[in-house]
Input
Amino acid sequence: MDVSSILDPLNSAQRAAVCHSNGHALVLAGAGSGKTRVLVHRIAWLIQAENVSPFSILAVTFTNKAAAEMRGRIESLLGIPASGMWVGTFHGIAHRLLRAHWQEAELPQNFQILDSDDQQRTLKRLIREMGLDDSQWPAKEAQWYINARKDEGLRAGQVKLYPGQKNDAHLLQMIEIYKYYEALCQQAGMVDFAEMLLRAKDLWQKRPDVLQHYRGRFQNILVDEFQDTNSIQYDWIKILAGDSGRVFAVGDDDQSIYGWRGAKIENIHQYTKDFTPSETYRLEQNYRSTGNILNAANGLIANNTDRLGKELWTEDSEGELIQVYSAFNEIDEANYIVDNIQQRLNEGYRRSECAILYRSNAQSRVLEESLIATGMPYRVYGGLRFFDRQEIRDVLAYLRIMTNRNDAPAFERIINTPTRGIGNKTLEVVRTTAREQNMTLWQATLSVIENKVLPARAIGALQAFVDLINEHAELIANVSLSEKIEHVVHHSGLEAYYEKEKGERGRARIENMQELVQAGVNFEAEDWQQEDENMDELSAFLSHAALEAGEGQADEWDDCVQLMTLHSAKGLEFKQVYICGVEEGLFPHRLSAEDPVRLEEERRLCYVGMTRAMENLTLSYAEKRRIYGEDSYPTPSRFLKEIPQDCLHQVRVTGFAKQASGYAGDATSSYSETPQDENGLNISLGQRVLHPSFGEGMVMNYEGEGRHARVQINFEEVGSKWLVMEYANLSLA
DNA sequence: CTTGCAACACTTTTT
DNA sequence: GTGTTGCAAG
Output
């Protein structure tokens, strides 16, 4: 067998890992070192060189995107469809197992997936039904608590109390809520995300016959982003592997940034103990970034303790220094970044090659305003995802209740959406009936109608709802998936309801609902049956909607500047990267700065952000920032001091440093100098000036002094803009 | 049942 | 500063 196509594109470290022969292997793959490539080539190697059957391969990732990418790359490398092997997310694979073994997992065949929104609503209702004050016991907190316990592999009855916690009323109440929630989900056949993993693990432990079958099958297990595994995921893999399965784990302890949601970086250490003997491979050659960027990132991360140790290097040149911009305030910061991007575009870069990264979502607003003012197209990642949109969830809820009348979250969602005269009072009666007579909400509704325990008007409204659902459920019974969706959109009243919503928003909602019909058409065309042979098309689609949030469902990127949090940037790369808000309190976030463990995670987050950059990296901070409507005067982040200073270029150091002591940075402080640029050009109000890319305009306003002054210029072509004198490169018109 | 206003709280996020 | 939630009036 000719394996040169598999091995030739690899460096020696990658090749060693790919060809690893016996037993387990741990690959410590630094940022940009070809981690996915190693996984993909490893699979190809197994199949083509070791003659392993694709059926024996299980490859697990964390995100759908990573799974899709892996699958695609395997197929293009092998030149054949990757059929037979299981490639998916932990949740996707757990779901598949539970669908196939619902009986063994002690679930009803038609169990429903409870996504986080459903979960929260369910908890809210449950807390109220328990007679608790839901302002004192917020559903969100309970959700957080329950999921955290499940991530540790603990059911309500297994939570252990330390001696000091025996009288902790709050904690005891949380456990009580957890107990009720657990019972409710079991009774209603609802499975939340964490539960999927927990059930899949229980399945191994409770049913040795099932475990035996999969152990026999999956002799080759590959795990991506191993540093992000939580306790159940780790255990699940460990149990599945047993004595004979080989586990090939790829990860980077320096990129562990999800500790706060249960990921255990220690798993990577634990692995070397549990999976012995195992070989460790280090991928340290970086193919992404310039020398300066890597030196800076290496220097920063060296401040963390307890690392497995790894130093990235590159054959690439040093490249440009990292720019550090000290902004006057957050608006100046945004303008600087946008101006800088504009310059890069003039140099020939594409907008999509530029990314602005920030610690928290709230920071995006100012950036967006600046981008809009400049007329620069951009895309914000990580906003509301397609299947999470209100109107989409509404349509799906109709489909769900038509599939299963006892789907409580769906019932609650649409019972009065669009409004049909069923108010809280009516609903309370239904809920009480359901609780007292141990019925589902749907059954309770029927009972209330039959016994006429409410005024005629309410009874009529309930009857109309029941009829609507029954009637249309029948009408769509024998049509295709997309026709079902379309029918519900038209006849549920949702379309009419959202048409009334004024403005852009209503129209967008209608468009999204049409997009959902299209999603149905696409789904029909996919070979979903291969993965979900145990379900009908609609159920499979509904599961798909819960498991895949639908990123990439809507707008495929045009050429846009990319905005996202540092967290969502993981796994991506951009030629031009701007990290903004590099200030104490924001980054590291004030809620994490005190705790050394969390501080290290912040530092890793910074490391992740920096290593996204291929050619240029700019770090910026503001001397004054409005946060929650209050002015704050943050100090530059400690991370800036931890980066080797010879990697950095302080953009604003000239001029500003000379008057450093007084830089309170308030716009109202006195200004003696008129705006002046690098060449000493002075500018006054009303003057006509020429900008290399914006053309001619008039100086309308300015703030600040000397070369750091920001001037507002009303350009003939592009309208009004704030520019920083030092970079504006203006000349007199 | 809907609408309007005041009080509130507010990292990071995938599935 | 923004978005969400709870309560009271219409």
In short: The longest strand of chain A covers residues 613-627.
